Amino acid sequence: MEYRRTQLEALSRFMEEKKCEILQALNADLRRPAFEGELDEIGLVMNEVNTALNNLEYWMADEHVNKNLAMTFDSAFIRKDPYGVVLIISPFNYPFYLTLVPLVGAIAAGNCVIVKPSELSRCSEKLMAEVLPKYFDPDTFAVVTGGHETTTKLLENKFDYIEYAGSNTVGKMVMTAAAKHLTPLTLELGGKNPCYVDSCCDFQNAANRIVWGKSYNAGQACTAPDYVICTADTQDRLIPCLRQAIRCFYGCNPQESPDFGRMINDEHFRRVRALLDCGQVAIGGETDESDRYIAPTVLVNVKEWEPIMQQEVFGPVLPIFTVAGLDEAIQYINSKDRPLAAYAFSCDHQVVNRVLACTSSGGFCGNDCLMQAFLVSLPHGGIGCSGFGKINGRFSFDTFTHQRGCLTRCMGLEALNSVRYPPYTERKLQMLKFGTDVRRWNPCTLL
User: Which of 188, 201, 365, 369 is catalytic?
Assistant: First the structure.
């Protein structure tokens, strides 16, 4: 326990002492404003570290479980063992958060860890590679840098656990490599997160929260609202409010705002810019390739078969897909792969609860966007094509922990054990069943 605490405290010192360098790296890579970087890349990681340090003794303790009559005098418990050597492969969009949050869980659980940051966020990768190892025991922690070939070679090794966050395509490659060694893994893959807006709604409040969620980190967030789904009448009432929110947040020319980020590289810029050919631009649409700038944009009249409704946007472009009503919206959401997050806005709690009850997603937030990821007590992870496994707080510790079922018995009392030894008899069977059967607490009879 003390060794794990030492390593976690070292990570805390890194976050505190290198705060300025972290914010500078994020700005150089993604033009991220310091406000956003300090809120999530630093603040959320520190929350994870502090939560782990506050609860480590409780998390690590053996968990004693209920016993049956036959094992009354025995000790039955779950031992929290580390898996061994963990590989963490993180993406470019939140280079510190998506590297260090799972790292906290892996270290708290007692594992050795190799991290592979994304080569696309070059300044953040360099900082982690050159500085972070100075804070950790080199026998416990290492950073590997490089591109696709490096990751491929890395995955040829046998790890005890792998955690990957990123695209669905690369996630399949990671899972294929893990399967060769039967290595368990966690995948966080994103997806097309729906955002239902009801006709009974405070439209300006909803617009403010949707624009913030879609423009945060220039839309390069796996939990960002990917598209709005609503009726045509709701769309007409929502668009002026979205325009007002964009103007209020970023001014008449968002390119000049210090609070609006940029696409990570030219390839991602061109991919998102191509999506502007879908539907019709209602707000924004301006681009500048030399600056990797794409304005906060709203598209209307998009069709289901168009590229923007077939792939994760991962940029500041928000399509609005119209349906006849709530039933059709739920039907459409359920016809697609299950997303990492789902959102619903309504002044009627029954509408929000119906979207929650009738859809499936990794996480859910009613009447806001992204905020579920800021709560360390909630699990973060996908379902189906958006991934599997959970991180955040206790869930990170459990992810990187092998829960080892243990039973210790005394060497005496052999007479009690004799009922399970041959020669078998009906009397022995009934006695053994009496001592081991689980009985229902409240049996009921259907009439």
Answer: 188
Residue the block writes with tokens 């789902």: 342
Catalytic residue among 112, 195, 201, 222: 222
Across the chain, mean pLDDT equals 95
pLDDT score of 4 more than 70: yes
Task: Output the pTM of the full model.
Answer: 0.93
Q: Which fold has domain 194-381?
A: Aldehyde Dehydrogenase; Chain A, domain 2 (3.40.309)
pLDDT in tens, 59-100: 999 999 999 888 888 899 999 999 999 999 999 999 999 999
Domain at 2-189+390-402, CATH from 3.40.605.10, 3.60.70.12, 1.10.287.600, 3.60.110.10: 3.40.605.10
Tokens 């997806």 correspond to: 191
163 is catalytic: no
- Is the predicted pLDDT of residue 382 greater than 90, yes or no? yes
Neighbours of 418 (CB within 10 A): 10
Q: Is 222 a catalytic residue?
A: yes
**β-strands 161-165, 141-143: how paired?**
unpaired
Residue 218 neighbours by CB under 8 Å, 6+ apart: 30, 31, 260, 261, 262, 263, 294, 315, 316
